């Protein structure tokens, strides 16, 4: 059995690449924490404009549609707020400008817990490898949390320093903590289902995948449904 995370933070910030990533990656956890009084915010780094296989789909139109879907999903989860950096989909670079935006958001919202993709998770079996934007986001978030957001000479104009105490990385191949989402797996399913632009064949398979993944994680955690993370504890 893995370690179940029982504490609910006061403030949490989930930083992800695409409009549907937070819901798919940790929507059950975000909903559970929000329902228990945590101020949960989401920062979306790209506009998701290339997330279509249809050559006739205009990326600018898709970005608008996906933002609407994300707002809907955010209200399903009970988020306190959502922000967009609006980088073009697929074009994230782990550079100073990007990390400066992340540091500014971390210092502004002062979360105890930051959630992000695990950038070391690259190959998932023989059929899938992790999207470049996910990898870039994960690495940039780690470096922005520590040391950058916590030390004054990094991005000196980005507000007063802030020490994040915990990073939870989703989509990890090495989960070491689990959050029980038995009470919120339905909310997660509904939030993922808001991203209609991503389901050419209907949202049914996505619902099934959400439940199967949560059930699998639940088996490791000793509960019905869970989400697994790799945890880092920082700053004592
Ligand atoms: Zn994504």
Concise summary:
The chain is α/β, with parallel strands linked by helices and 236 residues long.
Task: Write structural notes for this entry.
By secondary structure, the chain is α/β, with parallel strands linked by helices. The protein has one domain (8-233): Rossmann fold (3-Layer(aba) Sandwich). It is built from six helices and ten strands, in the order ββαβαβαβββαββααβ. It has helices at residues 21-35, 59-77, 96-109, 132-145, 185-193, 204-221, and strands spanning 3-4, 11-16, 39-46, 81-87, 113-117, 123-124, 128-129, 166-170, 177-180, 226-233. Helix 1 (21-35) packs parallel to helix 2, helix 3 crosses helix 4 and helix 5 (185-193) runs antiparallel to helix 6. The longest helix is centred in the first third of the chain and has 19 residues, at 59-77. It is globular. The model has no long low-confidence stretch (mean pLDDT 96). It binds zinc ion. Zinc ion (ZN) is lined by residues 17-18, 21, 131, 134.
The biggest beta sheet, please?
8 strands, mixed
The set of bound ligands, ions and cofactors reads:
zinc ion
Q: Which strand order do you get reading across the main beta sheet?
A: 1-9-10-8-5-2-3-4
Q: Report the β-strand fraction as a percent range.
A: 15-25%
N- to C-terminal distance:
26 Å
Number of domains: 1
CATH architectural name: 3-Layer(aba) Sandwich
Ranges with pLDDT <50 over ≥5 residues?
A: none
Query: Rough shape?
Result: globular
Per DSSP, the total helix count is 6
CATH superfamily: LmbE-like
What fold name stands as the CATH topology? Answer: Rossmann fold
The top-level CATH class is: Alpha Beta
User: How many strands in all?
Assistant: 10
pLDDT average, as an integer?
96
Radius of gyration: 17 Å
Helicity range: 25-40%
User: Which structural category do the helix and sheet elements fall into?
Assistant: alpha/beta
